[in-house]
Amino acid sequence: MGGSSDAGEWRQAARRFADEVVRPAAGQIDQTDALPAEILDRMRPTGLFGLGVPTEWGGSGGDTRSISGVLEELAAASPTVAVLLSVHLSVCTHPIFAHGTDDQKERFVRPLAAGRALGAFALTEPSVGSDAARLSTRYASGPRGFVLNGAKMFITNGARADVVLAFATRDAAQGARGISAFLVEKGTPGFGTAQKLDKLGLRGSETNELVFQDAQVPARNLLGAEGEGLKVALGALSAGRVGIASCALGVARAAFETMRAAAIADPSDARRGEVARAFVTLSAAQSLVARAAEEKDAGRPYDGFASAAKLFASDAAVRIASHAIDVAGPAGTQNGADANRIFRDARVFPIVEGTTEIQELILGRTLVGR
Fold first, then answer.
1. pLDDT per position as a tens digit, 42-97
2. Catalytic residue among 72, 206, 274, 353
3. What fold is seen in the domain 230-368?
C-alpha cells in the first residue's frame, strides 16, 4: 500500500474500528485512567500496528498519509489509543527498521509490526527535556555489551512496552557525539518502571518514569553505530511530530463536532459565529497536517512542515476545545462530559513531542537559518 486510495482505505478501516471499539470506551478510559486490554487485543488483527513497515518484514505497508489518517480517526474517538499507536510506530518501530540490522529487524520489527510487541521511546529525562544533547543517562562497556545508568521521564507506553528505544551518553563532554541508541527489552536486568504519572489529559495512556540501574544491554541491541544516537532520535522526532499533529487534529475535530452539536441544539448568531471560526481553524490544521505528510512521503525535507503542523494542530485543538466548553455551557464543564474530557486531552498536545516554543524554534531556523 502507498497511494492516496490506500490511505483512504486505511482511514475508513480506522474509522470503523474507532466507532465500533474505541468511542464506546472513551469515557471509561478517561474516568478509570486505564486502557482496557481488550481494545489492544481487537486492534492487533487490523494491521494498524504494522503501518509503514513493508510487507516483506511482516508489516502492513502504507505511507505517512495512511498513518496520519488512521491516527486522526482514532484520536477523534480517544487520543489515548491514537498516541499509543503513534509512539509505537513513529518513534520506535520505524527507527528500528530504518537503522537496524537484519537481526534487529527480525527480532524487533516483526513482532512490533504484528502487534505481538509494543514499542516506546525514551529520550526525555527528569531534568532534560528539549535539549537532547544534555542527557545525563550514561552508558559504559560491560561484560554483555553495555551497562546503562540513569532515569527517563514522561515515557508514553513505558510500562506496557516490550521494547524501548532508549538514549544514553558515554561522555557528556562529547555533547551530541557521545549519544548512542539502545534497544532495551522488557525484563532486562537492572531496567524497570519507577512510577506511573497521573496526568490532566490522555488518561489511560501509560506515562512512566523508567530507571536504569546497571541495566545490562547486549551489544547486538545497539541501534546504529556508537555516537549516532542523536541522529536517530532527531529523525524519529520529526516523523513523530507528524503523527502527534495528526492526533491533535483528531482531537480538534472531536471538539468541533461537540461544539456544533451543542449549537444545533440551541442555535444563536453568536454560536453560529463560534462554529464558523472553529471550522476555519480546523480546516487550516487539516491542510498543514496533510502537507507535512505529503512532503515526508515525497522524500523532501519536511522538518519545518512537521513542526508547523504540530504547532498549529495542537493550538487548534486547545482553541476549539475551549470554545466547545463555552458553547456547551455549564454542562460541558462537568466531569463525564465530552467537552470536559476533550479539553483536558487537547491541553496536553502543545507540550508533548516538543513544546510549542521548540516547534517555533525549529520552524524559524528552517525559514531564516540558524
1. 999 999 999 999 999 999 999 999 999 999 999 999 999 999 999 999 999 999 99
2. 353
3. Butyryl-CoA Dehydrogenase, subunit A; domain 3 (1.20.140)
